[in-house]
Target: DNA-binding transcriptional regulator YhcF (GntR family)
Amino acid sequence: MDFNETKNIFLQIRDWIADQILQGKIVAGEKIPSVRELAVDMEVNRNTVMRSYSLMEEEGIIENKRGIGFFVAADAKSKLLKMQKQAFLNDELPMILHQIEVLKLNSSDLQILIQTIQSNDHENQ
Model:
């Protein structure tokens, strides 16, 4: 994994695991790599991975079964969707809307985006 210098590594690891859950690559009830395994794979300190796991445990995304390991919580995907939608609406969308305004973009400029959103609406019905 290539880490971004603008964000803490433990948060990037958390985001990577969250993305794996949202994409269905890791499912509810599934065991995730041990702290040691992930630290070796990502070439980071075990404490960094442990910090990521602790955060995800606090958020209710993963559960620690002592002596066995960490597992994806049953409702992890729905919690992540709710958290990330809210973060997008609060943090990212206002910046995007500002850029649309500054660049004087109109609906024809954004037609591909509009079609994608409409396509998602049909899939979710």
Q: What stands out?
A: The beta strands are 62-65, 69-72. The chain has two domains: 9-75, 77-123. The chain is about 60% helix and 5% strand.
